[in-house]
Amino acid sequence: MKTCPEELIDYMHDYLDGDITSENEQKLKHHLQQCEECQHHFHELKKAIAFVQSTSHISAPDDFTNKVMDRLPKEKKKVGRRREMAPPPSAADGGCSIHLLYDRKCVCLME
Ligand SMILES: [Zn+2]
User: What separation in Å is there between the alpha carbon of 8 and the centre of ligand 1?
Assistant: First the structure.
């Protein structure tokens, strides 16, 4: 079984991210021309990305609601309203992009 250079896989991801140097692109294309295995892998990668792109804007993932519930302060479920509970999580750090305002607290949904 022949082995392919590991960086070829990186090149594939770089290429699909639109973030590849022309030098690496040449190497990738050159290799793909002679390696069926990598052609197949590359094809699968492209399909996976096309699938994600085609669905990501349509609906939230199925577990979205569960994730939201998990992130809510646990005390709320058990004890009800106790305003002196945990301080609001900081929205400024972590670079997260989705927030949910819950009882005036910002609940970050992204790690
Ligand atoms: Zn290969």
Answer: 7
Q: What is the pLDDT of residues 82-102, one digit of tens each?
A: 555 555 555 454 444 444 444
Taking each helix axis from N to C end, the angle separating 36-56 and 22-34, rounded to the nearest 10 degrees, works out to: 120
Per-domain residue ranges for the chain?
6-54, 60-73+84-111
pTM value surpassing 0.85: no
CA of 7 to the centre of ligand 1 (A): 10
Give me the residues near ligand 1 (ion), CB cutoff below 5 Å.
4, 35, 37-38
Report the separation in Å between the CA atom of 32 and the middle of ligand 1, taken as the mean of its atom positions: 7
* pLDDT tens, residue by residue, 4-26: 999 999 999 999 989 999 999 99
Q: What is the three-class DSSP state of 44?
A: helix
- CA 100 to ligand 1 centroid distance, Å: 45
H helix and E strand count, the chain? 5, 2
